[in-house]
Amino acid sequence: MTEPEPSVLVFDVNETLLDIESLQPRFERIFDDPRVLREWFGQLVMYSMALTLSGRYTDFATLGRAVLQMIADVHRVDVGDDDLRDFTAGMQTLPAHPDVADGLTTLRDRGYRLVTLTNSPPPADGRSPLHTAGLSDFFERQFSVDPQRRFKPSPQLYTVVAEDLGVPASACMMVAAHPWDLIGAQAAGMSAALLTRPGNAALPVPGIPAPTVVADDVPDLARRLSGTRS
């Protein structure tokens, strides 16, 4: 690392910590093709950014269901109410990647402050997907974009996290599987760690900051961050 080591690690949730591939059986059942999962997720991210750029907002869960319906219309398949309810339940019960708990344990034991920042709205019943996945106790705070009514990678979202934690943005490292998420964090003054989950890689564009750290998973991130904190 050429930048100062962070004191706060800000984790993205969906795909970074929680495995969206667990939704594949639902896409297999609806579309007869589990690969449509990636089409849906890419469109979901694109339309979340389109809403933010146009000054409009709906919560990520509602948008996810709408994009699923849109993709179904494109593929000329029917999506019923039962499908939508089952899909929503799947989104709320995503399992953690197998490496996550061990990696977070190491980072917490080294003294890093751990928080999350997700596009997903706060749960109505207080039980977030991280709670269901058994990860919530690792995190000091779970931030949602919902109060700001805009989606990542809007730089304001990352700035608000740092301000609420009482630290400068430069003390924070955003950890995500998506380069677009890291670009927003770096624009706000954070450093960035890319986890190369399957289907994700760094974006090699001249003039665009590269991730500070590139790691295979959370334990690898812990190994690549220098020193032991106290």
UniProtKB/TrEMBL annotation:
Gene3D superfamilies: HAD superfamily/HAD-like, Putative phosphatase, domain 2. Keywords: Hydrolase. It comes from the Bacteria. The keyword Hydrolase applies. Its EC number is 3.8.1.3. GO terms for molecular function: haloacetate dehalogenase activity. It is an enzyme of class 3 (hydrolase). Pfam families: Hydrolase. The keyword Hydrolase applies. Belongs to the HAD-like hydrolase superfamily. S-2-haloalkanoic acid dehalogenase family. This is Haloacetate dehalogenase H-2. It comes from Mycolicibacterium vanbaalenii. The gene is dehH2.
